[in-house]
């Protein structure tokens, strides 16, 4: 998730008028396999009711690992982020699948466990820097880390979706080289490590290297 410092305090009085109804985009049922994440997983839209949960979840780990995010992170920052997801809910580019389920990945989605109305425990987002290239970004609250949740979401929701988008030729995850947790997510989800990108980004003005991981949809793989 990326955010910028708000230029003015959030206006809470109009939240009810601006808010959107919570929409469930994907439901991944829990499994009976004890070695996997054992809970129903829902990917939904964001609503302003999520602001306190986002603010409480953004810790120094998330702040350090994300590209651009304010610190300390407040409910006003969260409301600004939610406003952005409501204003631009669709993908930056890239058409939806021409077959398969009607569910569609949106640019920013909340991750909820057990129920579609449970408090959000994380976020997953998507960009299309090019018409054939999907890029994934994500974060999880501390309570949801280390349980195999994010690899399961990517492997069982995101990659099958990308495989149905005929124009998609590549899905990638880039994370700072010190972000070992995100690297493990990519590896567990079946991504291939491609190498390091030197001085890939300048978080807080400091040149920082990144590790690049990719997954190629079956229809785009060269024989």
UniProtKB/TrEMBL annotation:
Entry's Gene Ontology molecular function annotations: protein N-terminal-serine acetyltransferase activity; protein-N-terminal-alanine acetyltransferase activity
InterPro entries with a match to the protein in the record: Acyl_CoA_acyltransferase, GNAT_dom, Ribosomal_N-acetyltransferase
Domain N-acetyltransferase stretches: 68-217
GO CC annotation: cytoplasm
Superkingdom in the source lineage: Eukaryota
Annotated protein name in UniProt: N-acetyltransferase domain-containing protein
Alphabetized Pfam families for the sequence: Acetyltransf_3
Gene3D superfamilies noted in UniProt: 3.40.630.30
